[in-house]
Amino acid sequence: MAQGAAMMALPASRKLVMEICSGYLPAARYVKSVAEPVDLVLFDLGGVLIEVAGVRAMLELTGIQSEEELWRRWLTCRWVRRFESGGCSDTEFAAGVIADWQLELSAAAFLEAFRNWPTGPLPGAAELVAQTRASVATGCFSNTNALHWYDHIAGWPLAGLFDHRFLSFELGLLKPDIAAFAQVADLLGVPAERVLFLDDNALNVAGAAAAGFQAARAVGVDEARQRLAEAAVLGAVA
Length: 238
Description:
single chain; globular; Rossmann fold; two-stranded antiparallel sheet; 7 strands; alpha/beta; DNA polymerase, domain 1
């Protein structure tokens, strides 16, 4: 089947992901510039506020040469999608990833390493969220799973700083799917165009922008602070 015909057969949210991942459409086309006043800032966690060792670990395990290719495979992997939407157990997830990715280690060993991917908040993360919260409401929207959340993230003070919390394994929906952002917008009760979403992954930024959010890419705390200053949520960065 030709690429164009294959894309037409996909649901809209998955079609967006595959078009961007394959290079069929550039991610930049979907990134909405920050223009409307911002009433709420929605943060991604991993890569923006939290250090996650998983990218480096998977690059080493798979031999994949680029983070872009790794993210394409990860975000479209059926076992990742099932696990991080609450659809399978951790042991099923580990066995499925090992089989589908043909990794040369046991499912138990992979799961033990995976369990410790989140290593802690990035320096300045809590301060940034607190400063943002003094200006506008805050929330987090993260593709994550019960293992990472309850074993690590939920116990960090950072997790208590948000007015709203959206976790993929609780929602049953995943970024960058447009349906996930639409559900979040409904639950927030704030017009999507007045929500600023920050994520380190261009695919997720594209999904948010396609769903009507203001969206910008930010890798780490310093870039997040810069994006917030550009949106006039925080003062200008010196």
